[in-house]
Specification:
This protein is of the alpha+beta class. It has two helices and two strands; from the N terminus they run αββα. The two termini are 16 Å apart.
Length: 76
């Protein structure tokens, strides 16, 4: 029976296209975080906070990755 996780195609080096896409997205996210070195002012419902932009972007990226992981687990 074929695996339920999708296609099992591999590149000539034996690496899945999904892994390559994940590495590319992670590299672009890291690059984007590193070039944004300013300060961001964030409005929460009742107060404001200031934080380095790299921190805000990292937390946002991590929250998106966690959400994706949780939703992907739910479908199984």
């Amino acid at each position: 029976m074929p695996p339920t996780g999708g296609s099992s195609r591999k590149t000539p080096l034996g690496v899945s296209p999904r892994l390559i896409a994940g590495i590319v997205v992670a590299a672009l996210a890291i690059w984007f975080v590193l070039i944004n070195t300013g300060t961001a002012r964030i409005h929460f419902w009742l107060f404001w906070a200031e934080a380095p932009m790299w921190f805000v972007l990292t937390v946002t990226f991590a929250a998106g990755a966690a959400t994706t992981w949780l939703l992907a687990r739910r479908k199984k």
